[in-house]
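Lab intake sheet, docking and co-folding queue.

SAMPLE TYPE: protein with bound small molecule
LIGAND NAME: NAP
LIGAND FORMAT: SMILES
REQUESTED OUTPUT: full 3D complex as structure tokens
PRIORITY: normal
SUBMITTED BY: R.K., bench team

The fields below were copied directly from the construct record.
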Amino acid sequence: MSIPSTIREYRSQGDNHQNLKIQQAPLSKPRASEVTIKVHAVSLQYRDLIVSKGRYPGQKTNVVPCSDGAGEIVAVGEDVKGWKVGDRVSPNFAVDHIHGDVTEDIKNTGLGGQIDGMLREYINVPSHSLVKIPEHLTYEEGATLPCAALTAYNALLGPVPLKGGDYVLVLGTGGVSIFGLQIALASGANVIVTSSSDEKLQVATKLGAHHVINYNKNPNWEDEVLKITAGRGVDHIIEVGGPNTIRKCIKAIKYAGQVHIIGFVSGGDSGIPVGAAIGKAITFRGILIGSVKQFEDMNRLFIARQIHPVVDRVFSFEQAIDAYSYLESQKHVGKVVIKIA
Ligand SMILES: NC(=O)c1ccc[n+]([C@@H]2O[C@H](COP(=O)([O-])OP(=O)(O)OC[C@H]3O[C@@H](n4cnc5c(N)ncnc54)[C@H](OP(=O)(O)O)[C@@H]3O)[C@@H](O)[C@H]2O)c1
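RESULT FIELD (auto-filled):
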């Protein structure tokens, strides 16, 4: 395959996604420890909206946005072992997070935030960041895995993995939450999904959710969760809501349950109510995506259960701004994808 010396890429000045600019850029040869990937698809996260507004901690100026992509290797550096041209791959969200705990240095290798990301036609990445895309997935599906799926996997099957028969509560039907639903179901849990919309809840039910609650129609949804669990509360919560949902989650969790602190889509600025947390001996665990090792473990589950990510809509490379607007509108269930090649 001939590799171009000039490619197209987007850049963000942090002044809103409407101002994302496409430009031409040179493509260098991969360094000895790198591979060149022809990017086929990219998926969007809530984080990409934050980066586009210039509000992501430590973000690079004039950054190439987006953490999540999938493509094929088109060139291999001279010291790279174990990878070859034609392999279907994704780089991990933080390219240096190979295994174990995250560190400050690792955090500073986040694609599309601290370093240039995936919203471009080709990228050079270190080979230690690579994970193979499961064979049953298309590039569009594979592009959804690095951030949202791995975050949900790290929460539910991390240091305190869920057990079959556990109750898992997922808030909303965005990217992380729908993966939380799928991973929990595949691991034998009972799943409760909340959402702003009955139509979205129908999708969750079709995917296998055991119980669904519309949090707009039922603002005291935490009481409903307690009713469903016969007063016991749930074992794990995918907490993407943040300050405005945390108190409800403390009510909905069982004694000594696991609240996975992931996001802040519900807004607000209150802290964790300490007394209530102590009173139920709750574990709060902040999640920061995951490692290459966890990504590989997760893919084994996706392969074993033939899980297909829920791709809501696919936009073209030229429509990237529309894709961001669609994500921002929160009309989606699961993932919004940009097809590049
Ligand atoms: N810590 C990490 O490692 C990590 C990794 C990935 C994402 N995150 C964070 O997790 C959050 C979700 O990210 P994402 O990419 O999955 O977002 P997303 O795909 O944009 O999903 C957002 C969804 O959140 C739901 N929502 C909005 N307000 C809500 C509320 N008050 N209560 C419950 N649900 C609400 C909506 O679904 P409904 O209309 O169905 O309610 C909305 O579609 C973000 O804050 C993101 O920054 C963190």
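REVIEWER NOTE: The two ends are 14 Å apart (CA to CA).
SIGN-OFF: pending second check by T.M.
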